[in-house]
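Q: Structure tokens for this one, please.
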Amino acid sequence: MKMYNYKILTGILCFSLLSIIGCKKMDSTYSEFLEGGEKIYTSKADSLLVRPGNERVMLSWLLISDPKVNKYKIFWNSRKDSLEGTLKKTAEVDSIHVLIPNLKEGVYNFEVFQYDNLGNSSVKVEAIGKSYGKQYLNSLLNRAFNTIQRNGSNLEIEWMPSEESVKEVQLEYTDNKGVKKNETIPAAEVLTVLENFPFGGTFNYKTIYLPEPLSLDVFSAALVSETEKLEEMNISKANWKNYPLPGDTYQSEYSDWKIENLWDGFTDVSPKFFYVDPNLPDLKLPNWFTLDLGSKFKLTKFRMYQLAHAEAWMYNYGAPKTFEVYASQSPASDGSWTGWDLLGSFSSVKPSGLPNGDLSADDVARARAGEEFELKATDKPYQYIRVKITSTWGGNLNPMISELSLRGFYAID
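A: Here is the predicted structure, written as tokens:
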């Protein structure tokens, strides 16, 4: 019985000794917090967030509890830089926003402390944020596009997919009525239609970036210009018509040889040609006729076909040898030359140089293919042309022409 009690007493003593040793170790663990008395911490910055910007950032957090909190201090750049300010707690959850300006471009670790009116500090709260600047700005490229093509009076831009950080494209142009247009194109838009875009016109655009969803600032790529690239075409003759004015010579000797044959598409078929009546009173050279093209075009080339249904007519009789081409946007109704622009004075060239009546194979080929002439370069669109015949190969006063063709670019009013 005595031995049993001795064992119990020994066990109690050992347990007590171990408890004392364990407590001493725990006191040692927390001793750094209890030196000089118990450490009191005020409430910390809650839900700290860093919003990036252009050489600036904004720190935001919530002030949830502890009405004694009245000050904050923010450290960054390894605590070489800091900013402090006052806080005023209300009965609600307060949102704190602190702007740090003039912040060199880079990534920063921000440490935020709050203090109460007794000088007690909160525990540190950290967040990483970025300041953007010239290096980022200089890296920005404008959004690329696949195609730019005309569709009637409009210009269509098919865009390439945009980068994730693209917010929008800002585009401006002046339409064909002289009205300045400003378009904001969302990043998700693939096809943009610029209405009433002027023929061969230019638009300016820049791409706007938002580097991060919560960024304070947007950044813009450099403003660039894009001009519609024109494709020269054969101008449609579907709407051509005679536009007789006082002084014009357009009367044919026979109804089948009418001026309308100039745009019927036949170049070497009889009687599909224009043959001026040689019996007109006071007929002389030069003489001219006027055509309405039906729409405005920028004209680049003019092709004239001689009568080519039989070789006897080639470089002979009334085939024009020298002539002039004029164009107008609005001809004077009196038939005068007011408002007409000279687009070129031209001479028909016979490849062989042989006298009238003699033809080489090259002469025949040239007559059947028609002779093409470059018109004076101009930015003006025209709807009316006037062809003035100044001499013919055979000396005839009545011109004889099989077909006319024009090349150029479609223009929108």
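A few notes: The chain has a mean pLDDT of 91. The CA atoms of residues 303 and 372 lie 4 Å apart.
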